[in-house]
């Protein structure tokens, strides 16, 4: 099995599950700033031209949360998946909420501050995206009041997704300032022994020319240090 992409990109989501589920996988860095994700070889694996992508036998697939679900369903036994249909539905609800309502405005903020070429940025969208994100963080903050898990009484895929997405919110403009429950949740999840590095740490390692130390010792990682967006 091969996973393309490294922290701090969204590849962090499936890498966290690979670690937690003890799945053997080769992690292959992609040089995004150099355009490797748009090269012919990678586009043959993931026509979307984005990290992460997973190759498992004849399956080649994209989308970080879909890859998490596949890993849990195909290789994780019963772990991190509610068996009760209502709880399973809640897990899907939160997974979609996290990427469409929390990550999407964070991504807009990133695009219009650092990712798009300066001439293409729309600075006026940044405060709007920030507002949209804060609006959607409020019900999530209320949901986490007195709760250890996103769904039910044990860990599910949604907890790992939530921890990564909320870490991003914390990292980008300190959006968790008024969300102590979200912050506590992120800290508790990242204290797990098999957690990947937090986004800030992964960026710091990359900037220092190191490979982020996020993989089990037996997961092969090509030793290329790359700047990531
Ligand atoms: N919805 C996708 C988003 C993937 C994505 O945008 N990945 C970024 C890295 S975190 C990327 O490949 N960016 C390069 C680009 O958009 O050209 C997912 O969750 O997998």
Write up this protein:
There is one protein chain. With 229 residues, the protein is of the alpha+beta class. It folds into two domains: 2-79 and 201-207, Glutaredoxin, CATH 3.40.30.10; 85-190, Glutathione S-transferase Yfyf (Class Pi), Chain A, domain 2 (Up-down Bundle), CATH 1.20.1050. It has eight helices and four strands; from the N terminus they run βαβαββαααααα. The protein has helices at 12-20, 40-45, 64-75, 85-115, 125-143, 157-171, 180-190, 199-207; strands spanning 2-4, 26-28, 53-56, 59-62. A four-stranded mixed sheet has the order 2-1-3-4, covered by helices on one side. Strand 1 (2-4), helix 1 and strand 2 form a beta-alpha-beta unit. Helix 4 (85-115) runs parallel beside helix 6. The protein starts with a strand and ends in a 22-residue tail after the last helix. The model is unreliable at 213-229 (pLDDT under 50). The structure holds glutathione (GSH). Glutathione is lined by residues 9-10, 32, 37, 50-52, 62-64, 229.
Any low-confidence stretches, pLDDT <50, length ≥5?
A: 213-229
Architecture per CATH nomenclature, i.e. the level-2 architecture of the largest domain: Up-down Bundle
Order of helices and strands: EHEHEEHHHHHH
Number of domains: 2
Across the major sheet, the strand order is 2-1-3-4
- State the share of residues found in helices, binned by percent: 40-55%
Total E-strand runs: 4
Bound molecules: glutathione
Global Rg: 17 Å
Shape: globular
Mean pLDDT: 90
- Helix count equals 8
């Amino acid at each position: 099995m091969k996973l393309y992409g490294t922290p701090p990109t969204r590849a962090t989501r499936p890498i966290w599950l690979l670690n937690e589920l003890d799945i053997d996988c080769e992690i292959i860095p992609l040089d995004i700033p150099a355009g490797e994700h748009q090269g012919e070889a990678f586009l043959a694996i993931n026509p979307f031209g984005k990290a992460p992508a997973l190759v498992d036998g004849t399956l080649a697939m994209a989308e970080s949360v879909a890859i998490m679900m596949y890993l849990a369903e195909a290789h994780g036994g019963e772990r991190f998946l509610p068996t009760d249909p209502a709880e399973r539905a809640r897990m899907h609800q939160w997974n979609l909420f996290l990427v469409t309502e929390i990550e999407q405005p964070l991504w807009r903020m990133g695009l219009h501050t650092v990712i798009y070429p300066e001439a293409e940025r729309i600075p006026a969208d940044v405060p709007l995206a920030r507002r949209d994100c804060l609006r959607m963080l409020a019900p999530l903050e209320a949901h986490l009041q007195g709760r250890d898990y996103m769904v039910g009484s044990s860990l599910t895929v949604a907890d790992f997704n939530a921890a990564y997405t909320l870490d991003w919110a914390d990292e980008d403009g300190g959006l968790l300032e008024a969300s102590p429950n979200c912050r506590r949740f992120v800290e508790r999840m990242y204290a797990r022994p098999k957690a990947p590095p937090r986004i800030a740490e992964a960026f710091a390692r990359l900037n220092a020319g190191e490979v982020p130390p996020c993989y089990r010792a037996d997961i092969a990682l090509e030793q290329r240090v790359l700047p990531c967006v």
